[in-house]
Description:
Layout: H1 9-49, H2 56-69, H3 77-80, E1 81-85, E2 89-102, E3 105-116, H4 117-123
Antiparallel strand pairs: 1-2, 2-3
Helix pairs in contact: 1-2
Amino acid sequence: MRGQRGISYWGVVALIFITFLSIQFFMAAGSAYYDDFALNKIITERLKSVPNDMDSDSLMNSFSQQFDMNGLRDIKPADRLKVTNDGGIEVIKKYEVRNKFVGNMDLVVHFEKTFNQKAIKAAG
């Protein structure tokens, strides 16, 4: 056999580059996804426990206090959440996070979800 066995020099360089990009991606997007997961959990738990006729200002204050307790201090509920109460509380979460990725490229992650109190209480 005259052919080379194993990975070549350019294969190693490509592997290092792919590993670097993967680590950069998880560092840039990981915190945004973790914060969104915590945000979803807080909204769901809070909607399970509040009465059906609670006004939106009280609920937003409740979210703000819960965010502070959970260490989500840079998240302002008024910037990311919209609360409506038309026969049942509905919370609309819509925002995007922009983080530096590599060089002058940014990574933009968009989150959007609607939470309905009746559906959450019915699910258990």
